[in-house]
Amino acid sequence: MDPRLPFHPGDGRLRYAGPAVVALPGGREVAVTASLVLRFDPNRTDNRESDRDSTWAGSVTLSDPSSDVDLFDAAPGILRMPDGRESEFMATSGSTEVGLAGLGPAPFVKS
Fold first, then answer.
1. Please, which residues have CB within 8 angstroms of residue 26's CB and are 6 or more apart in sequence?
2. Is the N or C terminus of the chain more exposed, i.e. has fewer CB atoms within 10 Å?
3. Cα gap 20→43, rounded to integer Å
4. pLDDT tens for residues 21-64?
5. Tell me: the pLDDT tens digits for 58-86?
6. What's the predicted TM-score (pTM) here?
7. What is the dihedral of CA 76, 81, 27, 54, to 10 degrees?
8. What angle do CA 47, 16, 28 make, to 5 degrees?
């Protein structure tokens, strides 16, 4: 059994839940609701080594599910936060609601 703490609020990890924008390849932008978590914490000893390359993860859901956008086409996409910070991600599943794995620094964590 995995000794890591559960992937839910209360586990001490930095999180973001709220509005964002996904920029798809080709320049189209769509409003989404994001639910994100920082996976790698250099101060903890129970990190997985693979978390170093994919430091944040979560899901995004189209704000307008009737739009003709398939979020799985974000390969890679850019997730932009309301304050303008952004980072690339790869969609891992879904179409109007997708799982994602971050590429690079988490855009919801201020450095």
1. none
2. N
3. 28
4. 999 888 889 999 999 988 765 566 665 655 554 578 999 999 99
5. 999 999 988 888 888 887 899 999 999 99
6. 0.78
7. -10
8. 110
Closest to 4 in 3D by CA, of 45, 60, 63: 45
List the domain boundaries for the chain.
Answer: 16-103
CA 3 – CA 81 distance, rounded (Å): 32
Match domain 16-103 to its CATH number in 2.60.40, 2.40.128, 2.40.10, 1.10.10. 2.40.10
Rounded Cα distance between 63 and 26, Å, is 20
CA dihedral 60→91→80→96, nearest 10 degrees, is -40
Structure tokens at 80: 């932009």
Cis-peptide into 3, omega within 30 deg = no
User: From the CB of residue 88, how many other CB atoms can be counted at a distance below 10 Å?
Assistant: 16
